Amino acid sequence: MTTSRRKFIKISALGLGGVAATTSAINMFGSNSYLNTLVKENVGEKFKITPTYCEVCFWKCAAWAYTNEDGEIKKIIGNEDDPHCHGRLCPRGTGGVGMYTDEDRLKTPLIRTTVNGEETFREASWDEALDLIASKFNGIKEKHGAESLALLKHGCPGWHFEHLYKSLGSDTIAEPAYAQCRGPRETGFALTFGSWVGSPEPTDIRDTKCLVLIGSHIGENMHNSQVQEMSDAIDNGATIITVDPRFSTAASKSKHWLAIKPSTDIALLLSWMHVLIKEELYDKEYVEKYGLGFNELKEYVRQFTPEWAYGITTIKPEEIRKTARAMGHAAPAAIVHPGRHVVWYGDDTQRERAIAILNGLLGSWGRRGGFYFKEKINVPNFPHPAYPEPKWGWKEIGENFPLAQMGITNELINASIPNKNNKYPIKAWMVAGTNLIKSIPDTIQLKKAMDALDFLVVIDTMPTDITGYADVILPECTYLERSDIVRSATNRQPSIAVRFAAVTPKYNSKPGAWIAKEIGERLGLSKYYNYKDFDEVIDWQLKELGTSKEEMAKIGVKRYPRKSGPMYLNEDETHQFGTASGKIEFYSQELKDLGFDPMPTYTAHPEPPQGFYRLNYGRSPMHTFSRTANNPNLNALKSENNLWVNPKVARILGLKTNQKVWLKNQDDIISNFSIKVRVTERIRWDSVYMVHGFGHDNKKLTRAYGKGIDDTKMISKIFVDPIMGGTGMRGNFVSILTENPHKNTEI
Amino acid sequence: MRYAMVIDTLKCVGCSDCVVACQTENDVPIGYCRDWVTENVSGSYPSIELELKSERCNHCENAPCVRCCPTGASHQLNNGIVLVTADECIGCGACIESCPYDARYQHPDGYVDKCTFCHHRLEKGQLPACVAVCPTKCMYFGDLDNQNSEVSKLLKNRKWKTLAPEAGTKPKVYYLI
Predict the structure, then answer these.
(1) Strands B105-106, B112-113: parallel, antiparallel or unpaired by DSSP?
(2) What is the pLDDT of residues A335-390, one digit of tens each?
(3) Could you read off the pLDDT of A87-134 as tens digits, one per residue?
(4) Is the CB of residue B122 less than 8 Å away from at least one CB of chain A?
(5) Rounded-to-integer distance, Cα A313 and Cα A305, Å
(6) CB-CB neighbours of A226 under 10 Å
(7) Over the stretch A392-404, which tens digit does the pLDDT of each residue have?
(8) How far apart are CA B26 and CA A637, in angstroms?
(9) Does B77 touch chain A (CB under 8 A)?
(10) Phi then psi for A549, rounded to 5 degrees?
(11) What's the pLDDT tens digit per position in A149-167?
């Protein structure tokens, strides 16, 4: 076996154990004295409370961190004024304290080195690590141009490094949140309504009369305000329709659960359109006033009878009619939810188009109980000179996907693999806040790219799998230990939320803002960092927004009046949608001109061969991505994933609940670890299911290492969406091994 | 005053936020819990039902744990809350055995611990931590002696059940079904 230069380092870092709490005594954001004025009493203890917003997931709920007199964070409670959480955090937000207390955290900068022929990491000072990054980046920039430095990011740290990259002259930036997650819906809805769905989704669930979920498992995904509003909708007696081959939690709350055959959703959606139009249940006035291409659509869907769809979806024609009527009667207070993780089969933009068209027929866009017109407030950028213009960037790298709205991670990865025809050679990566090993499907391609890189920097709070491949690892402090960018998100009403450091950073970790600035200054970009520390930026931004640190320390969240007009369509006025035609485009000329179907079509997808089961994956409400598996509080709730198996399958294979099995996929990829079987009626006989984000390879994650199976590793086949480059991941099939395939090999 | 908790199983998604909130509020050591979530699946594909619910000490009116406690550490307040006085508890475990709900555990410090309905928070006019945090708002708390309380109204207007009614303990945690 040849040793790859970027061989994953599994063993403990040299001397890492000896670092012991060398807590930085210097609070780089000054004394934060304004924070100390707020003291609340609870459980007989005096608490200092500090406003923050959560970074355990992307919902970014505003909260209060409670710090006791010993300077320990004891609990985190939601901010009642926050539209993302209304004072109620989800389990991950409540358990966010575990991110701070986790003793397995990255503690000090680490640099890859070789000792006696073995690759390992050695501890380094911040100066040494940052100097090394600057010299490598400078070298690559001089030789290949700044464009060949790529940034792969997620969340708040991503914001700081994006500024660094743009200052440097690189727009070679992507995040899994697009091509591995919500990209198709943003493209599909933009094509139809001329507007992204965005985050949080502008779904008026609390006032809806009918909520339709297509494979979207609210309640297992804890997108906080969505979960809260679904609960309101249940209280209000709304009809919930869930389409899912698995009996999800949402399915159990639904009046109608359509146990669809996997990969046939578009057939159902087309048939629903057929019924709505044939039975004249669609919103005629709305369609006539705002729609474009309705006649083409009407003509087109005439053929898609429920009887036709039954043969494909296995959903009975009367169920299709009944559910279409339920939507039609509730309209316009009906929502066919766009979903969030929607990269399934490669025709995902078209499925999202079908969902958007259905909402258009129901007249729900811009209507109470449907989709509201969202609004946010713009946080001004701290003044800096214009960014240099890169010669190429994410757009050019993704040029084969004309309607991609953001960088496509997999295209950046491909561009990192040497190839003489590659016009956009990428030489180095910075990876901030995302564990690519578990967020990017087709791990083989990913590893090939990492192997070819000249340099790889990883910034994270935890020794996630990706850190094992880095040349330099930088330990970021957790969100609770840093002041950060002002949160502004789209909602019914604009609002901002602040994150102030509740405590000083543990160990030798630093905030992303500080790290980015230090690198920037070493790269000669001081003019883009025209401030002493990031606190000064926050101070300036808050003043520009008509508030102050002192005020925000007391309230955490500030709401602003709407300025863009009412939340719903004003029926007396004409409304211009953001599409080329200014109308809701049932028929898309734009897609037609680019050589794609102007209206969604159903195509059959491969089915599992004998002895294989479709690998389905999803979320557990206690965990985010692969990020929280080691969090002591959340690990205590769920320490590993299980393989859901239908009792019929279990009988055939002789499987019992809690039995350990391994998986092998259609490309002979074998899981590193085993997973415990859960025999349950909640899953179809042609599929198996597991929660994403387990099976960690890094032994430094002492609680999460080797627990469960990593679904991403089993997804070696991807179905690329030709419209926007999303990576469909639901077409992988696995067989179940009851004997340990690694018996004679060490992993 | 008779405190009771009402939990709407039609809204609970089983996220276990109640468990973490209890843990951070009450300093419950990791690996132990005062409340937990159960999942019951019945039927077969595709006619399935799923019931998720958050469970804890039922603060029984007729509490076997109080009756069997040899030291009086387990006791009941006038408002119905069952508590354990840690320094009077000898950790004999009789109460753990007597509880039909398996709601008590041995704290690593030696005494027996369980849900207190967040007694310390009630005194300040706050709701129990689990009720206050629940993202589905499926948990309600209040006084059964007050006919106008939310809990009284819910029990009057909705179908409900209690756990292990055959044990005759008169539990004070109700589940809307």
Answers:
(1) antiparallel
(2) 999 999 999 999 999 999 999 999 999 999 999 999 999 999 999 999 999 999 99
(3) 999 999 999 999 999 999 999 999 999 988 889 999 999 999 999 999
(4) no
(5) 12
(6) 22
(7) 999 999 999 999 9
(8) 16
(9) no
(10) -60, -40
(11) 999 999 999 999 999 999 9
Distance from CA of A393 to the nearest CA of B (A): 41
Instruction: Select from A23, A74, A45, A44 the least CA-distant residue to A502.
Output: A74
What count of Cα atoms within 13 Å lies in the side-chain half-sphere of residue A290? 30
Torsion over CA of A263, A269, A272 and A274, rounded to 10 degrees? -110
- Chain A residues with CB under 8 Å of B176 CB are none
When CB atoms are compared, the residue of A42, A75, A682 closest to B41 is A682
Which chain B residues are Cβ-neighbours of A46 within 8 angstroms? none
Mean pLDDT score, A525-552: 98
Q: Would the CB atoms of A633 and B20 count as touching at under 8 Å?
A: yes
Instruction: For residue B160, give its domain range.
Output: 3-176
Q: How confident is the model at residue A31 (pLDDT cuts 50, 70, 90)?
A: very low
Residues of A in contact with B133 (CB under 8 A): 77-78, 88-89, 94
Q: Is the pLDDT of residue A35 over 70?
A: no
- Other CB atoms within 10 A of residue A386 CB: 6
Per the structure, how many domains does chain B have? 1
Task: Indicate the pTM of the whole model.
Answer: 0.94
Q: What is the CA radius of gyration of chain B?
A: 16
For residues A159-182, one letter each, b for 16 or more C-beta atoms within 10 angstroms of the residue's C-beta and e for the rest, the string is bbbbbbbbbbbbbbbbbbbbbbbb
- What DSSP letter does each residue of A324-380 carry, written as one string? HHHHHHHTTSEEE---SS--SSS-HHHHHHHHHHHHHHHT-BTSTTSB---B--PPP
CB-CB contact of A209 with A336 (8 Å): no
Contact present, B5 and B174 (Cβ < 8 Å):
yes
ipTM of the shown complex = 0.97
Q: Are B86 and B67 in contact (CB under 8 A)?
A: no
In chain A, what are the domains? 184-374+579-593 (3.40.228.10), 613-737 (2.40.40.20)
Cα separation, B16 vs A604, in Å, equals 39
CATH number, position B120: 3.30.70.20
Residue A681 one-letter amino acid: E
State the DSSP string of B50-113.
EEEEEE-----SS-HHHHH-SSS-EEE-TTS-EEE-GGG-----HHHHH-TT---EE-TTSSEE
Mean pLDDT of all residues in B20-27: 97
Res. A19: pLDDT tops 60: no
pLDDT of residue A34: 36
